[in-house]
């Protein structure tokens, strides 16, 4: 699940909705103050991000015969199947939120390609620069195919001198920042958002406690079926649009 890898901020709270305070300005510096002088009064331009949990569900119907067939290992298969489905759903929610409420860091000149120098322009975005000091949460997300097309632009791994951070051996990267893959990202195409970058700690995530599994032997008992219900509740929200964003291809 991308949220765990990227350092997405977990938002505590009880109930369906939580209002998260967010900073709506780009300053906040301290002011030098002479001895015995009055301190500087600061009044943050606070906004509020409402994060309301949404329920996501899945239902699986199985025959009694299949469940009783130990050799099929159907429950082990379902554990993996449902777990991967949950992770894909979380990834899609995260990237949809950033694509909707994050910053448009760059419009790619090509309708279906990313050109040499355009990833550098995303990293060099002035508004984003103040959020790149938290190395644990700064990363790229795209499709594997898109990443390797970018890597092939210069015919090497695009490893330049003076990279911002030392990455672990085997860590996929671009311009010195970790790269993560997800097929929830669009492929390069007209108007598509095919490359995400920024400080993911400025995205909030809420989850309801626990993941519910309900085994229902009654609803379809007349057909010899057992119904397994799965559901969880979650929500994502961009907390600082300047800190996270995407590259989008030209619409025409």
What does it look like?
- With 252 residues, this protein is α+β, with helices and mostly antiparallel strands.
- The chain has one domain.
- Helix content is 22%, strand content 32%.
- The chain contains six helices and 13 strands.
- It has a six-stranded mixed beta sheet, sandwiched between helices. Strands 1, 4, 10, 11 and 12 form a five-stranded mixed beta sheet that branches.
- Strand 11 and strand 12 form a beta hairpin.
- The radius of gyration is 23 Å and the shape is globular.
- It starts with a helix and ends with a strand.
Task: Give keywords.
single chain; 252 residues; alpha+beta; 6-stranded mixed β-sheet; 6 helices; 22% helix
- Morphology: globular
- Structural class label: alpha+beta
What fraction of residues sit in β-strands?
25-35%
Number of domains: 1
Q: What is the CA–CA distance across the termini?
A: 33 Å
Low-confidence stretches: none
Number of distinct helices? 6
What is the alpha-carbon Rg in Å? 23 Å
Order of helices and strands: HEEEEHHEHHEHEEEEEEE
Sheet having the most strands: 6 strands, mixed
Helix-residue proportion: 10-25%
Beta strand count: 13
Numbering strands along the chain, what is their spatial order in the largest sheet?
5-13-9-6-8-7
- Chain oligomer state: single chain
Question: What is the residue-averaged pLDDT?
Answer: 89
């Amino acid at each position: 699940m991308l949220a765990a890898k990227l350092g997405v901020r977990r938002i505590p709270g009880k109930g369906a909705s939580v209002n998260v305070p967010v900073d709506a300005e780009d300053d906040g510096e301290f002011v030098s103050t002479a001895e015995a002088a009055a301190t500087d009064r600061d009044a943050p331009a606070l906004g509020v991000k409402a994060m309301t949990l949404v329920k996501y569900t899945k239902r699986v119907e199985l025959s009694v015969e299949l469940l009783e067939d130990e050799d099929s290992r159907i429950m082990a298969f379902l554990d993996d199947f449902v777990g991967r489905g949950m992770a894909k759903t979380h990834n899609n929610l995260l990237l949809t939120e950033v694509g909707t409420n994050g910053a448009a860091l760059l419009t790619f000149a090509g309708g279906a390609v990313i050109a040499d120098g355009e990833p550098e322009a995303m990293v060099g975005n002035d508004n984003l620069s103040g959020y790149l000091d938290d190395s644990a949460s700064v990363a790229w997300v795209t499709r594997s195919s898109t990443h390797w097309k970018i890597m092939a632009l210069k015919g090497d791994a695009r490893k330049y001198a003076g990279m911002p951070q030392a990455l672990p051996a085997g860590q996929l990267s671009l311009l010195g920042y970790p790269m993560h893959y997800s097929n929830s990202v669009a492929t390069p195409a007209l108007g598509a958002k095919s490359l995400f970058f920024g400080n993911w700690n400025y995205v909030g995530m809420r989850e309801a406690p626990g993941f519910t599994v309900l085994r229902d032997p009654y609803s379809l008992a007349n057909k010899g079926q057992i119904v397994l219900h799965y559901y969880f509740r979650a929500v994502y929200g961009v907390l600082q649009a300047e800190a996270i964003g995407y590259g989008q291809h030209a619409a025409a």
